[in-house]
Design goal:
The protein is an all-beta fold and 41 residues long. It contains no helices and two strands. A two-stranded antiparallel ribbon has the order 1-2. It is rod-shaped and about 55 Å long. 0% of the residues are buried.
């Protein structure tokens, strides 16, 4: 994934996995990251 937007960005992330009793469990998070302009630009 690439980002062209300078600044703080967020993307949703979902993880699905099987627990010991055989059921699927889903956990959802929001990942926040920063994009800065490179010093050479």
């Amino acid at each position: 994934m690439t980002s062209e937007m300078i600044g703080t960005n967020s993307i949703p992330v979902s993880i699905v996995y099987r627990v010991k009793d055989g059921y699927l469990k889903t956990e959802t998070y929001t990942v926040t990251y920063k994009v800065r302009k490179a010093p050479s630009e």
